[in-house]
Amino acid sequence: MTSSSVKLLIGLQIFLCFSSVFAKEIILPSDHLHQVDDCTRCHSTGIDISKIVQDKSCLTCHDQKTLDNFVAKLASGDFSIRHQTKNPHHTAGADINAAAFYDETKFGEDHNPMITIPAGKFVMGTNNRLSDEGPQHEVTLPAYQIDKFEVTNLQYKKFINATKRKSPSHFRNRTYPRGKVDHPVVYVNWNDAKDYCEWAGKRLPTDQEWEKAARGTDGRTYPWGDEFDIAKANMPLRWESFGRKFGDTLPIGSFPSGVSPFGLHDMTGNVWEWTESWYYAYPNVEVKSENYGERYKTLKGGSWFDCSFYKCGISAPVFNRAFFGKKTKNDTFGFRCAKDI
User: Fold this and answer.
1) Cα dihedral angle (131, 135, 137, 139), rounded to 10 degrees?
2) Residue 262 pLDDT > 90, yes or no?
3) 299 vs 281: CA distance, rounded Å
4) Largest CA distance in the chain
5) Which of 309, 290, 300 lies closest to 333, judged by CA?
6) Where are the alpha helices (DSSP H) in the chain?
7) Residue 26 pLDDT > 80, yes or no?
């Protein structure tokens, strides 16, 4: 084994040792890369980390940019790599119910405050993951406004009372579940979201507007940066770290450290958010799909729960998108509104 190989192996073991500290709180993939003792068993004559991290399972929790940076740091002799997933128990633990479920609103029943997104360019999509998320391309948008928070149960209740609209299926006697006054409203389809926004004097954001508001102009992977962190959003892995197979929605604004560059909350996790946009292919897409076109609407942001395809927080990156028919509704779909300036 060469001296450079030894250094790379030591660096990898340092990284994985930090990972093992959090093993009881973070469920890591059951692959050889996360088993420190197995490294020397398989790589006694040399190690090429760049090939190891090409395993597709790595992309379950890490984006390609993060993996490339990791390899580059080790190759340069930088072993000061720390595990980036922080212990989330300081925000939940034994007090999770008190923090997540209460009856007195902190945000009120009126329309959400809005944030102005300045005109200009931003980078949309990615070249490193799912085929429908790319190719990465530059988009120029005029200035617009978008809600700082997702629409809550209480705010939606005011809407259905004013319009005599049918209440969502999780409401009882035309009111939301006890303790969920400030949770994002769910069981709303695309038409419900569109009608609320119009009633509020607003509209649904396009997928481009949504992604710029979530991502900013530096091409980051998550609203807070490029490192995956379960302490910054209501995601499946966060609930798993508490030993819970299933999670739930949380009050809007529960993760101030996870806000976007423009100050929007919950742009990753909590609930998927309906957009105005049809599920079209991006310019110059290489992989065609029969699902593209004016058949499905695009949702953005991921949620507290990921279906069988979206495991381990894969929906957390801001460039991720889902597509469903306009009449679809469930306990993971919500929305926020936008407005022209």
Assistant:
1) -40
2) yes
3) 14
4) 74
5) 300
6) 3-21, 39-42, 49-52, 64-75, 96-100, 153-163, 190-199, 207-215, 236-241
7) no
* Residue 77 backbone zone (phi > 0: left; psi -120 to 50: alpha; other: beta): left
pLDDT digits (tens, 9 = 90+) for 187-224: 999 999 999 999 999 999 999 999 999 999 999 999 99
CA 10 – CA 310 distance, rounded (Å)? 33
Residue type, 306: D
For residue 270, give the nearest of 322, 332, 207 by alpha carbon.
332
Amino acid in position 179: G
Give the integer Cα–Cα distance in Å for 197 and 296. 19
Q: Measuring CA to CA, how many Å separate 142 from each of 113, 138, 280, 337?
A: 20, 14, 21, 17
Tokens representing 248 are 């739930």
Residue keyed to tokens 């959003």: 233
Global confidence as pTM: 0.73
Q: Report domain extents, the chain.
A: 3-83, 96-340
Mean pLDDT of 129-133: 91
Distance CA 119, CA 232 (A): 27
Nearest Cα to Cα of residue 269 among 338, 307, 318, 218:
318
- Sequence-distant (6+) residues with CB within 8 A of 278 are 293, 294, 295, 296, 297, 298
pLDDT, the chain, mean: 81
The residue assigned the tokens 């709303």 is: 188
Q: 96-340 has which CATH code?
A: 3.90.1580.10
247 residue type, one letter: G
Peptide bond into 135 cis (omega under 30): yes
The pLDDT tens digits for 75-119 are: 565 443 333 333 333 344 434 566 899 999 999 999 999 999 999
pLDDT at 314 over 70: yes
Would you state the pLDDT for residue 65? Answer: 73
**Tokens 């290489």 correspond to what residue?**
286
Q: What is the dihedral of CA 227, 229, 233, 237, to 10 degrees?
A: 130
**Hey, which of 48-62, 76-90, 170-184 has the most confident mean pLDDT?**
170-184
Distance CA 88, CA 254 (A): 12
Say which residues have a Cβ less than 8 Å from residue 77's Cβ, sequence separation at least 6: 7
